[in-house]
Design a protein that fits this description.
It comes from Novosphingobium panipatense. InterPro entries: GlmU-like (IPR050065), NTP_transferase_dom (IPR005835), Nucleotide-diphossugar_trans (IPR029044). This is MurNAc alpha-1-phosphate uridylyltransferase. It is built from 6 helices and 14 strands. It has one domain: Spore Coat Polysaccharide Biosynthesis Protein SpsA, Chain A (Alpha-Beta Complex). By secondary structure, it is of the alpha/beta class. It is globular, with a radius of gyration of 17 Å.
Length: about 240
Amino acid sequence: MTVKQLASDTAMVLAAGLGKRMRPLTATQPKPLVRVAGRSLIDHALDKLANAGIAKAVVNVHYMADALEGHLAVRKALPQIIISDERDMLLETGGGMVRAADRLPDPFFCLNSDNIWLDGPNDVFAELSTAWDAERMDALLLMVPHTRALNYKGEGDFHLDPAGLVSRRSPGRVAPFIFTGIQLVSRRLLRDAPDGPFSTNILWSRAIEEGRLFGISHMGLWFEVGEPSAIRPTEEWLTRV
């Protein structure tokens, strides 16, 4: 694959959630600070951004925001980390992007702060940049098939057609691809967004209807680390590579 320049130098890192599934570890710390293989989850994500050459991260905070801000204040890997403060109200994924929109270029990467993955032939930000088409896409989602989604026990999220267009899993059926939590987003996706808290799913549904939500399949491995029981298997996998 021929890799072009990264589509953006900025990523939004979603780090404001309550981490309920990760209890009891999140009773005393925000989920992004839970450690896996000797590093906090958010450090795994930020190190990937730095290695890809991304210069700026916009990180939203809500639950135990002071602890997360304190951790980020001593980070040196990225030239710039900006806090998007949601202490007053947890805005969910879509509302969080809208709150931070004036600090985000067009387009921007967006990823969950609890993501752990292994790159394929190219890093995921290069994969997304190579496939990006600003004229056709409101968002480009990084998907992973079940065989490369470790610790994952769900039924999948999406289908991809031969052109990369995304459609949702039908109720009661299995879909071949899982959303990794990593995407490349046009500011067009955020237009006319609802006020207050809302899920990005609302914006994705509109993009699907308009034929502007696309996806690509990740060529590396991705780890579901949503519960404490997933930490040890993930650490065992990471020691093999």
